[in-house]
Specification:
Elements (H helix, E strand, L loop, with lengths): L2 E4 L9 H10 L5 E6 L11 H10 L4 E6 L7 H7 L3 E5 L6 H10 L3 E6 L17 E5 L14 H14 L5 E5 L7 H7 L3 E4 L1 H4 L4 H9 L3
Parallel strand pairs: 1-8, 2-3, 3-4, 4-5, 5-6, 6-7, 7-8
Bound molecules: D-xylitol-5-phosphate and zinc ion.
The site of D-xylitol-5-phosphate has 22 residues, from strand 2, strand 8 and helix 7.
Length: about 220
């Protein structure tokens, strides 16, 4: 069964503790936390005070997705704020190999995210150093966007790369995941499904998490 990582970006920030507790009590395994700087992506989400508040109440690993330029500047700060998994964008990292080592040396799992236009093949020489690859299935910046179908082929290509290199990285899908495509994504080889809008706009978010997890 896939790991479900509800995206806090779609939570009600006026009732953040309530939404965090909902995830604690659900079948979700991770919290997905989107950090946006208004430079790498056209939107600004939230920063350390909010992340630390989430960490105080969350009882599951925080999967932190940095959509920021120069992510290497903040590795230790995100560790201190409670991140268990830290994902940086391939497109934002000039010295990606060094940044990945710094994330691991800081005691976190290391992820790399690739935008829809970025080929899986660019990960050839880094894949064995990664714990996670986040395949963006929308252009990053906003929740509630439409899933890009080309993602399926990327998941298959990534699976092949991981097998060929004997790597252990998990494959995470981020953006537009819903009850329609979740099953097909898992069949294609996805290990982790991020879901914001699908979970938080549903009448029963906890039940939606269960349904995403068992989608076939
Ligand atoms: C998009 C973010 C996603 C977002 C997903 O830039 O990286 O994590 O929260 O939201 P949905 O599931 O609503 O597409
Ligand atoms: Zn994300």
């Amino acid at each position: 069964m896939p790991i479900i990582a509800p995206s806090i970006l779609s939570a009600d920030f006026g009732h953040l503790q309530r939404d965090v507790e909902m995830i604690n009590a659900s079948e979700a395994e991770w919290f997905h936390i989107d950090i946006m700087d208004g430079v790498f992506v056209p939107n600004i989400s939230f920063g350390f005070p909010v992340l630390k508040s989430i960490a105080r109440h969350a009882r599951k690993p925080l999967d932190v997705h940095l959509m920021i330029v120069q992510p290497e500047r903040y590795v230790q700060a995100f560790k201190d704020a409670g991140a268990a998994i830290l994902t940086v964008h391939y497109e934002a990292s000039t010295h990606l190999h060094r940044t990945v080592q710094e994330i691991r040396n800081a005691g976190m799992k290391a992820g790399v995210a690739i935008n829809p236009h970025t080929s899986v093949s660019v990960l050839e020489d880094i894949i064995t150093d990664l714990d996670l690859v986040c395949v963006m299935s929308v252009n990053p910046g906003f929740g509630g966007q439409k899933f890009i179908p080309g993602t399926y082929a990327k998941v298959e290509a990534l699976n092949n790369l991981i097998a060929r290199k004997n790597a252990t990285a998990k494959i995470e899908i981020d953006g537009g995941v819903d009850l329609e495509n979740a099953g097909a994504l898992v069949k294609a080889g996805a290990d982790v499904l991020v879901a914001g809008n699908t979970v938080f706009s549903s009448v029963d978010p906890s039940a939606t998490i269960s349904r995403l997890r068992s989608a076939r």
